[in-house]
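Hypothesis: this fold can be encoded by more than one sequence.
Test: take the structure tokens below, design a sequence, compare later.
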């Protein structure tokens, strides 16, 4: 099997093969920022970055991305946003962090709906959280459905003809 390293030595434009490798794995953040800049325009940037994610690299710059622990922000919402900005599919820890944040916001909105005694909106939030709606939200939805049916019946009832004055 041909490895990424073998490919990188055989095609032009791969900066880390020509510049000092020290920059990509330097202990100094500014060196790594410089290396990340040199990755731009590298024909291997995407497979290089994908390889680093797949093999959970925890050190150095790969595909214009600094994977040094503490720099990727993976496992946080910030990491999720960084993936999105780079047009990547977020890694599993970032997806979990994002889902937790979204659920947290939904729970906060649900608490507001419960403070109103349970609402149709609350009913929808329960469903988006993947759970059964509570009794109060279910009751609010049943009330709205009944009102809606009554309004429809009213609209369908024939208008009574007014008696003609003689
Ligand atoms: S993208 Fe990968 S292969 Fe290309 S220069 Fe950067 S580290 Fe090297
Ligand atoms: Zn991530
Ligand atoms: Zn509820």
């Amino acid at each position: 099997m041909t490895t990424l390293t073998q490919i990188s030595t055989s095609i032009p434009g791969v900066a880390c093969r020509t510049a000092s490798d020290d920059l990509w794995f330097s202990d100094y953040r500014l060196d790594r920022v410089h290396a990340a800049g040199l990755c731009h325009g590298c024909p291997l940037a995407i497979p290089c970055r994908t390889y680093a994610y797949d093999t959970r690299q925890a050190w150095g710059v790969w595909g214009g991305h600094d994977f040094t622990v503490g720099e990727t922000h993976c496992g946080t919402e910030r990491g999720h946003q960084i993936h999105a900005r780079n047009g990547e599919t977020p890694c599993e820890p970032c997806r979990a962090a994002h889902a937790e944040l979204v659920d947290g916001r939904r729970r906060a909105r649900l608490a507001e709906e419960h403070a109103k005694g349970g609402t149709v909106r609350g009913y929808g939030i329960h469903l988006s959280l993947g759970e059964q709606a509570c009794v109060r939200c279910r009751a609010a939805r049943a009330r709205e459905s009944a009102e809606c049916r009554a309004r429809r019946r009213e609209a369908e009832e024939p208008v009574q003809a007014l008696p003609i004055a003689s």
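Helices lie at 4-10, 15-18, 29-39, 45-54, 77-85, 92-115, 120-128, 135-156. The pocket of zinc ion (ligand 3) is lined by residues 114, 118, 122, 126, 133-134, 136-137 (CB under 6 Å).
Hypothesis status: open.
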